[in-house]
Design a protein that fits this description.
By secondary structure, the chain is an alpha/beta fold. The chain has 21 helices and 12 strands. α5 packs parallel to α7 and α8 packs across α9.
């Protein structure tokens, strides 16, 4: 038998991310049983941060027995999400079995982390069709929310009526194919069309009127109507009246009554089969600037420059940093962002669950695994882009203490003030903690700090000095 390695109980971290793999409190009966048989218990499993991945019952058993140390093994994890996955796998295959409710909840957690039904089935030891049933409602809800989000972003235009987001830019933003983005936006339009029909009657709307009502291309609306004619008709057709049930007859609903629901085994994020390039070009819309815009090299250079300055200042303030993984190859004056690798941290699990939009914010400053400041650099895109991401950050994390910043050319401060006063942002209280940082103020502070070799203020004092409250 190999010699066991021990760790003081006080050094073990009871992290909520893995503790929540099970519902409620631990079983006191099992803990008492374990406490009377400590020598035969296997070591608990920790990650490199001493967080328990597997073995909460064993930990509490040692605590109950008055022990001050516990045998352990270590498994390196790549991120908080990876730690949660290992905890689910470990709890699913040994020890106290997970309940059906716990398996269902963890399957949904893994689904939200981007795992496919096939992967989840292997982890929780269930058939794919069962996993499909577990995540069906969540998948449909998430797809509906995604359709709405994409549709709202696609509808934004600047003062000249030009779209802020094209299919291509949205595809890049959310990590989908352009065809997938078009399909989701079409679903958003379809939902709006059905809502209008239900409220006011289908006869009140022609394709032309719908296009005006939805601020959409008429050819696109006509194609949606033609493609979904049967689905729209079924939605608008009232269900036949059911005969009244006999008064004395008791109807018992079988638990398996919904077992016949069709299960779709692919996670909704999986991209649809891409159409041939020629067909996609043939169906391209006539919107101004649609899918053929190229990023201006000067804009990218300035964006990288501002991003580096924010990261460098955050590093000097001894904060942890986060930027989109796609930006890790960027550099400024031969200063490569990867040189800050020690401070570039994976997001905590609860923030990862907030979705891709939050993960793509240009720069995040973190302290004690908590976001304290978020920065969106807006040079070539409209101010709305940054404001929408900040709104999503707030809504997802429900943390009004996070300070949000729009970093943009000096003269854009007036545009930012106008946009944030619009109902969309005013009603979600974003204006209460959103600031504007002009390029020149950021550059001056960076140059001053670089020349001095340090930052003289704390992070709040520094941001108060260079930012304007919107």
């Amino acid at each position: 038998m190999s010699k066991k390695t021990y760790i003081p109980l006080e050094d073990v971290v009871l992290w909520e991310g893995t503790k929540d793999v099970r519902d409620g409190d631990r079983s006191n009966e099992i803990i008492r049983s374990y406490s009377e048989n400590l020598d035969n218990l296997s070591p608990i499993l920790l990650d490199q941060h001493n967080r328990i991945l597997d073995g909460f019952h064993r930990y509490f058993a040692h605590e109950l027995a008055g022990e001050d140390k516990i045998p352990y093994t270590v498994k390196e994890v790549e991120s908080d999400a990876h730690a949660v996955e290992i905890a689910i796998v470990s709890n699913a295959v040994h020890g106290v079995p997970l309940t059906v409710a716990e398996i269902r909840r963890n399957a949904i957690r893994l689904f939200k982390m981007g795992r496919t039904n096939k992967d989840i089935a292997k982890i929780v030891k269930r058939h794919e069709t069962v996993v499909g049933k577990y995540v069906k409602a969540t998948r449909e809800r998430m797809e509906s929310e995604l359709c709405t989000k994409l549709g709202e972003l696609y509808a934004i235009t600047d003062d000249s009526g030009r779209k802020i987001y094209t299919h291509t830019s949205l595809a890049e933003e959310f990590g989908f194919s352009t065809h997938r983005v078009k399909d989701l936006i079409d679903k958003h339009y379809l939902k709006q069309i059905i809502d209008l029909y239900v409220k006011n009657g289908a006869r009140a709307y022609t394709a032309e009127i719908l296009a005006i009502e939805l601020n959409a291309n008429i050819m696109r609306i006509a194609k949606i109507l033609e493609k979904n004619e049967e689905a729209i008709a079924e939605t608008l057709t009232p269900e036949p009246a059911q005969e009244p049930e006999p008064e004395l007859e008791v109807q018992l609903e079988s638990e398996s009554g919904n077992e016949s629901d069709e299960i779709t085994e692919e996670v909704f994020e999986a991209e649809s089969t891409a159409e041939p390039e020629a067909k996609e070009h043939a169906e391209a819309e006539s919107d101004v600037g649609e899918d053929d815009e190229e990023k201006d090299e000067e804009s990218k250079r300035i964006h990288s420059e501002m991003q580096w300055m924010l990261l460098w200042l955050g590093n000097e303030l001894n904060l942890n940093l986060r930027l989109p993984k796609t930006d890790l190859t960027q550099s400024h004056k031969k200063n490569e962002i990867v040189n800050l690798a020690g401070k570039l941290k994976e997001l905590p699990f609860d923030i990862l669950m907030a979705g891709r939009s939050v993960q793509r914010i240009d720069v995040l400053w973190l302290k004690d695994n908590k976001i304290i400041a978020a920065f969106e650099i807006e040079h070539s895109t409209g101010i709305e882009s940054g404001l929408f991401r900040m709104s999503h950050l707030w809504v997802s994390l429900e943390d009004l203490s996070i300070r949000t910043y729009i970093v943009a050319p000096d003269t854009d401060v007036y545009k930012a003030q106008d946009k944030i006063s619009e109902p969309t942002f005013k009603h979600n209280r974003l204006a209460e903690s959103c600031w504007f940082v002009p390029y020149t103020k950021l550059a001056n502070k960076y140059n001053e700090a670089e020349q001095n070799g340090s930052v003289s203020k704390d992070w709040q004092g520094l941001l108060d000095e260079i930012g304007y409250k919107l």
